[in-house]
Design brief:
The chain crosses the membrane at residues 6-35, 81-101. Residues 4-54, 67-117 form the Inner membrane component domain. Keywords: Membrane, Transmembrane, Transmembrane helix. It holds the Pfam family YccF. This protein is mostly helical. The protein has one domain (2-121). The protein has helices spanning 2-28, 35-49, 63-91, 98-112; strands at residues 54-58, 117-121. Strands 1-2 form a two-stranded antiparallel ribbon. The chain is globular and about 45 Å long.
Length: 123
């Protein structure tokens, strides 16, 4: 299911969304202050390419990560989370779309607060 799901996800929007995240990451990485935000954009691009078979793991959180997440939520996070939640609702209409809705919910969680989280392959 992981391979087939990732191929279908890639064809129907994953590549386009990942390219958007890469461009945003490159633009943010132009300045020294924007490098942490650019790094999170690259993390989101990696997840947008193939979300099946991956899980989000909490890393050690720090006060800087908490502050960065608060700023991220205010500036970017809530819009991205709402977009992924709407996508999950649309996917969830059909039985075939339920696995894709689950991945959209995973992306909503990551897009809301990406600092202090890591992406790992499920074994």
């Amino acid at each position: 299911m992981t391979l087939i799901g990732n191929i279908i996800w890639f064809i129907f929007g994953g590549l386009i969304e990942a390219i958007g995240w890469w461009v945003a990451g490159l633009l943010w990485s132009i300045t020294i202050i924007g490098i942490p935000v650019g790094k999170q954009c690259f993390k989101m691009a990696k997840m947008q390419l193939a979300p099946f078979g991956k899980e989000i793991v909490e890393k050690d959180s720090s006060s800087i990560g908490l502050i960065a997440n608060i700023i991220w939520i205010i500036v970017f996070g809530w819009e991205l989370a709402v977009i992924n939640l709407v996508s999950a609702l649309i996917f969830g209409i059909t039985i075939i779309g339920i696995p894709f809705a689950k991945q959209s919910l995973k992306l909503a969680y990551l897009s809301l607060m990406p600092f202090g989280k890591d992406i790992r392959k499920v074994k």
